[in-house]
Amino acid sequence: MTERAAVKAALKTQAVETPSWAYGNSGTRFKVFAQQGVPRDPREKLDDAAKVHEFTGVAPTVALHIPWDKVDDYAALARHAEERGLRLGAINSNTFQDDDYRLGSVCHPDAAVRRKAVDHLLECVDIMDATGSKDLKLWFADGTNYPGQDDIRARQDRLAGALAEVYERLGDDQRMLLEYKLFEPAFYTTDVPDWGTAYAHCLKLGPKAQVVVDTGHHAPGTNIEFIVATLLREGKLGGFDFNSRFYADDDLMVGAADPFQLFRIMYEVVRGGGLSGDVAFMLDQCHNVESKIPAIVRSVMNVQEATAKALLVDREALAAAQREGDVLGANAVLMDAFNTDVRPLLREVREEMGLDPDPMGAYARSGWAEKIVAERVGGRQAGWGA
Amino acid sequence: MTERAAVKAALKTQAVETPSWAYGNSGTRFKVFAQQGVPRDPREKLDDAAKVHEFTGVAPTVALHIPWDKVDDYAALARHAEERGLRLGAINSNTFQDDDYRLGSVCHPDAAVRRKAVDHLLECVDIMDATGSKDLKLWFADGTNYPGQDDIRARQDRLAGALAEVYERLGDDQRMLLEYKLFEPAFYTTDVPDWGTAYAHCLKLGPKAQVVVDTGHHAPGTNIEFIVATLLREGKLGGFDFNSRFYADDDLMVGAADPFQLFRIMYEVVRGGGLSGDVAFMLDQCHNVESKIPAIVRSVMNVQEATAKALLVDREALAAAQREGDVLGANAVLMDAFNTDVRPLLREVREEMGLDPDPMGAYARSGWAEKIVAERVGGRQAGWGA
Amino acid sequence: MTERAAVKAALKTQAVETPSWAYGNSGTRFKVFAQQGVPRDPREKLDDAAKVHEFTGVAPTVALHIPWDKVDDYAALARHAEERGLRLGAINSNTFQDDDYRLGSVCHPDAAVRRKAVDHLLECVDIMDATGSKDLKLWFADGTNYPGQDDIRARQDRLAGALAEVYERLGDDQRMLLEYKLFEPAFYTTDVPDWGTAYAHCLKLGPKAQVVVDTGHHAPGTNIEFIVATLLREGKLGGFDFNSRFYADDDLMVGAADPFQLFRIMYEVVRGGGLSGDVAFMLDQCHNVESKIPAIVRSVMNVQEATAKALLVDREALAAAQREGDVLGANAVLMDAFNTDVRPLLREVREEMGLDPDPMGAYARSGWAEKIVAERVGGRQAGWGA
Amino acid sequence: MTERAAVKAALKTQAVETPSWAYGNSGTRFKVFAQQGVPRDPREKLDDAAKVHEFTGVAPTVALHIPWDKVDDYAALARHAEERGLRLGAINSNTFQDDDYRLGSVCHPDAAVRRKAVDHLLECVDIMDATGSKDLKLWFADGTNYPGQDDIRARQDRLAGALAEVYERLGDDQRMLLEYKLFEPAFYTTDVPDWGTAYAHCLKLGPKAQVVVDTGHHAPGTNIEFIVATLLREGKLGGFDFNSRFYADDDLMVGAADPFQLFRIMYEVVRGGGLSGDVAFMLDQCHNVESKIPAIVRSVMNVQEATAKALLVDREALAAAQREGDVLGANAVLMDAFNTDVRPLLREVREEMGLDPDPMGAYARSGWAEKIVAERVGGRQAGWGA
């Protein structure tokens, strides 16, 4: 197989998981701008996700969020997905939207609140059993807003206890993916603020606990690809929540703010053997002002383009330049891949997969956008609260 | 008058404006935690604000937000305030919560949306005429989320046109206070992102246009007191929106995150003659997890404490050390004031004003919190959306 | 002329000024790693700069730094440049390396030090007269390290006085370019920390005073292209000091850290009419660990590539999408240009200019690197201190 | 023992290590401003350090830096220290100032450079044996400036190998303290950029390897006290390098930029049992524009004041408020301690220790400053390069 063929083969087997909540309404604390045609229930979210997969060919799974995607019959939901060529992906827990969680969930000072939160996490594992999902993705909004508000260390103890209980409940091929986030909604301390904290907890829990890197959850100036390389080296990279940011956790389309950074991240994934392993590639974005489905299609394409460029890096030439200490030469090898226009290559990949080479255009021409605007009238649009 | 007496006199005449919306519910994009006893209408907000003034003695005015505080009879609202020892303060506009404003308001590409937004601003001046408010405070959520989304420069032209039209409408003793903010809700460009942009517009508009410094609206590392000193030197500091932050626009209680910074800001205010002039000292905060009225009392006290310390700086000794290039000596003069425990002084000030020396305790003992929880049952709690 | 021809024509007339000091040794506070073959005097710097111009065709001028490039006979130096196809560019002042400047230069509390600093600036204008340079570039390291160390406002007064005196001395076609910088070497306040401060001073001085944007001198998260668009709109953008950064003022090769940002900046330049006007495009970089001349060649090429992409933006399609509020469509127009591989186009441009299409390779093959290592033996290598 | 007596007892036994290099000249990449009276050799540095201890009573040890403090006879140097009431403290390695280290030391692509670096580290352990020092403090300037310059993961492998070899060499009561730093002098990747990386390496090495928190080495917005609490919980906090910062690694006097942060850090130390254990409290600062010895005295006092406030926190009241979820109450308990003026208490502590209650004044009156200016004439002043 030629190198170009190998690159194309890798691109054809890539999989990017889209999140059910990105199909619903979202916004900032100031305003949620509702859009027309937005799904009213989990099935309609899957219908939209099926379109993303239909036109990109590499978005076969959909992450669910509990309780936003709570249904009575998960088997039926899974069948609904399968009928559209999809599978249900990671189960995302929610321990931040009940009034009880004002001061935290698994780290709350009150044991009763912690119990409730852990029970929700255990219920999520039950749902995984029903859906066949392999990954439990945990993000905790826990933290404090004011110095002194709670005891930093005691909260870590409570967190460790909760995680251990949930870890015990996991089945043999189930994983716990622990997400970290610098801040928001907590503004003084966050209980899992950085990869180090997530890593330390996962290490103690065991091999089924791994770290999720959300690309928008770091302090300014953080070198994310370094973290990716380090976690892969430690065998502790569970997956990505992709999105992009200029400021805080902006949740813009992945690759929109800094495509070079996304390329560097994907290069470390490729270099560290993460492309063909168990690393989950998930989107976690908000489409507050732009059309949702096309934004998700574009995001999947952005991941593909970054991956294609990462795969095109001439690693032998790079290694040689690095060995020789040729700073400019090594940098040039990397930049040569980044500067390559990979869109023609990806068009070929799509054609070979039997897809339209232009997913954005194909979606636009499909009439789906008009159809859902016309048909999804009445009911309550899905959003972060539902 | 001794120096101590002069400091106390200055503290007695200080005035901190509290914002009507801080008495209502607020939260993050993830969740608004409702609190018991929260006001249901503008009058109840004023009732709460009256308690803050009653126990601190230095919070005599309340900022209104239109349309959240829209009423049929502003004269009656003003009387309601006066009967409680209050006056109505700045009028705050809202051009970010209508569906039309998805892509901006006064900077929107569509002239019809801009017209609507300007009309709202003009209506705010009408309300100022009715309430007797002197200040129109403008914050624009305008901006873009993606590179290319709109033309940066054209948006500035539109902004300039809108501001000019509103400026023309201002009465002789009315001011336009233009607020800047780095980001949020826009995540790529904000149309008034920094003091330089606000300053440039105000300069062209004329003397009735001035800049508002919101202490939470800067990039990490920005030296806010430098901006304060510079704007005072230019005669363009219109006021403050006080709050504090560790990360982004956290909107925590002023002085909670970095009391030393607040002291440095207040020192520049004192040094630049801003304490006795037209600078408006306003709070603009969210009390998402803490009790609202006590949090506002505490915030007013934090401003008082920072001001007291700033007034205690031995300016002659400071100037002498600065002249001599005595770095450590000059710094020590400033730190000596900061390290002083000014709480006893402020207790004296309050006693001399006929107040309880302990505002937090006095409020707690007053029974107001229990009363509003008991009485404010039913109806719709005020929040950012109402 | 076809659009492609117009783009090529614009690229052929582009000019990037290289700084004499980038040819000498540089480093961090921890270590300056000396390189072999580094120039020992201003003439040898010009010899190296001539190579950059020889292989890129768009680097015809060289910025000087006084006193690092002080010579007895500037006319002779100018002739040395001309004989190599170069002209002398901006004169950069240095008011930060004398022991007197420990607490500042033009903002120093001691009038004698201020006098010395202003005299140096006036001397720089004398040198401009001798070299025919049009631009005086002013960067002040002035600031303080500790709160209270000096009076922020008094320092602004001193700054204004110094600038006014130098402004008066400028000839009819000479400009003063005022650079701002957030921090370093001052760590608490910097006297010209942001574009707003530089703009306010330039505005008062008059039309010959303009702002320089150094791409590495901003707080994290600052949107530099917004500043560029704003300064162009105000007619106050004097020029750029190009370099790139991940953290602070890293002074890496322009375009190395965030090529998408450089493209966005160049797009605003093109859109604001800055490409064909008086805006000076200068590099200001350090090559601490990489070979200097090739790094400068690469940097010039990076500016060219960003400019080419900016010129390729389909502005009609962009304007149409912006008018329609088509967020994804407008973004796609911009990204289409960014994602284009412009290296073939630039190879054509070079061939049409009679140059080797591969400047890096051509320089490597030229033998210049080996020649200067062999010949420049003995003497004292140029660096930031000489 | 009353609580006040317990606080005073704790303050009397506190120990802050001062760094030999802070007595010498330092600066930024732009300029090192030499000061009069600066030591010319390690003994003179110890003489100055003895003054800091003489007037503060809590600075009994001095950190050495190899090779800057290299001497022929370390036993003699230790005696010189003892005669002045001092002991030699941590040994700091230097693998960043030889020309070989341009591309790194223990992470360098060339095995020969790595060998040299490891040999230096082993030599530092030899010196520890000679001086009786317990701690080897490792800071690596290793990293890269450009994407692609070297392989991130391979560098981690090299780092791990080097650390393991040095760890093996440690004696039974010797520790390895591993410092992390976000950036500088490397501007793209740093090989130990954050606490997570340092922690992961220390965990694998074993109990004698611990993490050092340098308060200036974090990304903007990082919550340092969270890291401190977490490392104490993990038993992996080896010590502090104290200094303060507004922007990057400013190396200002500890407590100068954000005294509230220093207090919060010291509170977590107290709360986590770190005050009475093995945590090393070291200064690591630069006194570029201020007088060095008084700046170090002031810094030691700043640590004392923050510690005193931390000890004064009413931990029972705090725990009660935290248990009840009383956000404002818990915060108020913490703030009450912070707002206390502890200078009178510390004056008492000093008097009870037989010291002058005013260390700054006592030093100024001692005549030492004048004496060293008069006597230390000629020779070569110590600085970061010697």
Automatic annotation (TrEMBL), chains A, B, C, D:
Q: Where is the Xylose isomerase-like TIM barrel domain?
A: 49-245
Top enzyme class: isomerase
Supply the Gene3D superfamilies for this chain: Divalent-metal-dependent TIM barrel enzymes
Coiled-coil portions = none
Instruction: Give yes or no: UniProt keyword DNA repair.
Output: no
- Give the Enzyme Commission number: 5.3.1.-, 5.3.1.14
Q: Which UniProt keywords apply?
A: Isomerase, Manganese, Metal-binding
The signal peptide annotation in the UniProt record is none
Q: Which GO terms describe its molecular function?
A: L-rhamnose isomerase activity
One Pfam family from the record: AP_endonuc_2
- InterPro entries, alphabetically? L-rhamnose_isomerase, Rhamnose_iso-rel, Xyl_isomerase-like_sf, Xyl_isomerase-like_TIM-brl
Q: Extract the PANTHER family matched here.
A: L-RHAMNOSE ISOMERASE
Listed name of the protein? L-rhamnose isomerase/sugar isomerase
Q: Which organism is it from?
A: Streptomyces thermodiastaticus
Taxonomic lineage: Bacteria, Bacillati, Actinomycetota, Actinomycetes, Kitasatosporales
